[in-house]
Amino acid sequence: MKLSILLLTIAGMACSSDITKSYKAPSLFLNHGGGPLPVLGEKHNKEIGDFLRNVSNHMDFDRTEAVIVVTAHREEDVVTISSGERHGMVYDYSNFPAVSYEWKHKAPGAPKLARSVHAAFTRAGIPAALDPVRGWDHGTFIPMMLADPAARIPILQVSILKSQNASQHFELGRVLRQFRDQGVAVIGSGMSYHNMAEFRKAVIDSDGVIVNEEFDEYLTEVCTGDDLRRILRWEEERGAKEAHLEGEADHLMPLIVNIGAAGLATGRKVFHSVFIGKFKLSGFVWN
Questions:
Q1: Handedness of CA 209, 214, 220, 223 (dihedral sign)
Q2: Tens-place pLDDT, residues 151-162
Q3: On the chain, which terminus has fewer CB atoms closer than 10 Å, C or N?
Q4: pLDDT band at 206 (very low <50, low <70, confident <90, very high)
Q5: Cα–Cα distance between 190 and 70 in angstroms, integer?
């Protein structure tokens, strides 16, 4: 009898271990808002902040081994991967309250994962570099401060490319897809609409007329449909060049990485908001 109980216990432990190992982490695109404003609770960024505080609704933090954050706020000639045991913060915003330059997100880095990601890019013929020094920019630490305030999940920050080439970013996602099977979430941190000149005008005087209905509908169709490669032709869509100006599409690139990392899953729209009363924002997840 005792032997039977022992064998059942061992079998149960093995099953539990298998379940943990089999967790497929999501590919998740989030809007990170304006600088530190989601953390400060500024009115236009409140819905963004509320969503970020509830990211755990869309991924199992207890089974997530690490997060790869693809940030719109680091553009490089080659994809660059944070590889330190710990990273400081890069306060890449200005004219905000002093407290927003004191924040720290003390999650560990993921140097072993960084080496694996670097090797995967290299095998795919994608030039890549490891950076153990530079800190996490606000595209990384602002959303993660809200999503994981206990700072328990290791972070790997990955840059986008200066080329802002859709095909290249889609391929980055295809390489990162494999790490989802290891319980590593791929988080794209950008904005589905990002036109700074229009943001500034709207803050001063918003007429409440939404300007990006068609482009937001297009993104939703792509991300929740079965033809993800439509994103490679995003510049041809009505309203595309107003939503992301020529040469300033950095905040769309993380979403394209997420789409590349989606695999065969059907995406879901998990966030929608009207920013500053004029600009539709959308977030998506692939589980």
A1: negative
A2: 999 999 999 999
A3: N
A4: confident
A5: 8
Domain range 24-286, CATH class: alpha beta
Domain ranges in the chain are 24-286
Spatial contact of 260 and 176, defined as CB atoms under 8 Å apart: yes
Residue identified by tokens 């720290």 is 104
Q: In sequence order, which residues have a C-beta less than 8 Å from that of residue 52 and are 6 or more positions away?
A: 30, 32, 38, 142, 143, 146, 147
Task: Yes or no: say if 273 and 47 are a contact pair by the CB < 8 Å rule.
Answer: yes
Single pTM value for the model: 0.92
At residue 24, φ and ψ (nearest 5 deg) are -100, 110
Rounded to the nearest integer, the mean pLDDT of the chain is 93
Q: Give pLDDT tens digits for 91-114.
A: 999 999 999 999 999 999 999 999
